[in-house]
Design a protein that fits this description.
Elements: H1 6-9, E1 18-19, E2 25-30, E3 39-44, H2 47-82, H3 88-114, E4 124-126, E5 136-138, H4 143-173, H5 179-211
Helix pairs in contact: 2-3, 3-4, 4-5
Length: 212
C-alpha cells in the first residue's frame, strides 16, 4: 500500500478523472512518485467497493503484524537453540510458524486480487474519507508472482515438516519423543505437502486462464 501525505496529494486539483466504460471506476492521472509527471491511476467510485477493498487491506495489515511477530519469535528461538536452551523440534516448529505467517500474508493479498476491484497494471486511488482528495493509493497486485512465492514457501514448509517428522522418529528411537508426537509430526508433514500441491495447482490454473 502506498500512502502519501496530504501535501503530496494537493496536486489532485490538477487531476482530471473521466468516466470509463463501467460506473464502478474512473480513469485519471496523479503524480504518484513526485516526478512532476502524471501517472495513470484508477479511482474506485462505489462506496461498497471501497469498503470491501479497505477490509482486505486491513486484513493484509494484520497479517503483516503477525508475520513480524513470527519473525521475532523465530529469531528468539534461534538464540535459545544456539544456547542449548530449547530443542531442535522447537526450532523446527518456530520455522514452520514463520513460513505459515508468510503464506497467510500472501493469501490475504491474493484474496484482494481475486475481488477484481483493483487495477492489474496501474495504482488504484481510494478516497477513504470522501473529501475528494487521494489519501490512499494501492499498487497493483500481481497474482502470478505471489503464487510463485507461495509455491516456494509451501515447499519450504513441507521440507521443514518432513525434517521435523524424521527428527521426531529419531527422537522416538532414543526414547525422547512419544508415538503421539511422531504421528502429529507426520500429520503436519502431509498437511504441508497438500498445501504445496494446492499452491502448485492454483498457480497452474491461473497460468492456464491467462493463456486462454
Amino acid at each position: 500500500m502506498l500512502a502519501r501525505p496530504f501535501a503530496v496529494f494537493i496536486a489532485v486539483a490538477c487531476c482530471c478523472f473521466s468516466s470509463c466504460a463501467t460506473p464502478r471506476t474512473s480513469q485519471g492521472f496523479i503524480d504518484v512518485d513526485g516526478d512532476g509527471l502524471g501517472d495513470s491511476v484508477v479511482e474506485l467510485k462505489l462506496a461498497e467497493d471501497k469498503e470491501a477493498v479497505l477490509l482486505h487491506l486491513q486484513k493484509i495489515d494484520v497479517c503483516k503484524k503477525v508475520q513480524v511477530l513470527a519473525e521475532q519469535g523465530y529469531a528468539r528461538i534461534k538464540q535459545l537453540h544456539a544456547a542449548s536452551r530449547v530443542g531442535p523440534l522447537e526450532l523446527i516448529g518456530s520455522e514452520a510458524r514463520l513460513a505459515s505467517a508468510n503464506i497467510e500474508l500472501i493469501d490475504a493479498k491474493l484474496a484482494l486480487a481475486r475481488t477484481g476491484l483493483m487495477a492489474v497494471s496501474e495504482p488504484t486511488f481510494i478516497d477513504t474519507d470522501e473529501d475528494g482528495l487521494p489519501d490512499m493509493l494501492q499498487i497493483p497486485i500481481h497474482a502470478v508472482e505471489l503464487l510463485d512465492e507461495k509455491v516456494a514457501l509451501t515447499h519450504s514448509l513441507f521440507a521443514q515438516r518432513s525434517h521435523g517428522h524424521e527428527r521426531a522418529k529419531s527422537l522416538q528411537k532414543s526414547g525422547v519423543a512419544s508415538s503421539d508426537e511422531v504421528r502429529n509430526a507426520a500429520q503436519q508433514m502431509y498437511e504441508a505437502e497438500l498445501d504445496w500441491l494446492n499452491a502448485r495447482l492454483e498457480r497452474q490454473s491461473l497460468r492456464d486462464a491467462d493463456d486462454r
